[in-house]
Model the fold of this input.
Amino acid sequence: MKKQVIQATLAVAVSIMLVVAVGSAQTPSRGSADIPFNFHVGNATLPAGPYQVNSGYPTTDSLSIRSKDGSKGAIVMTSAVAPMKADGTSKLVFNQYGSEYFLSEVWNPYDSIVRGVVKTKSEVEVARKVREGQITEVALKKR
Done:
């Protein structure tokens, strides 16, 4: 009887640890940003304005960006690019080609890695025409 109680207690403890580990791994990271220009995310073109940024939702490698009023948004897949810097810098990084801006990276305050957005066919075409781009950064605030 004592052995069964110990086994049941261990089983419950292991189950709780697994639920906590899985739940924390799937918790989305959230931030907000005021983006002062129209921009592209994946195949969507979004207007300037305040946005909510969620990485890790709906899947671990995805990024959701939605206007604060909920009327515009996009979901794109991302990949790990580099570890986050220890200074906790939080920002959105855009590739700028002339007047066109494409979301390139997300430095989220809750992530331990920088998430990169894959270049779309339209970004590659614009980059080829302009030839020389630059990087533009927008602060990402904790929510």
Notes: The chain is about 25% helix and 45% strand. The mean pLDDT is 81. The helical segments are 2-25, 121-130. The chain has one domain: 28-142.
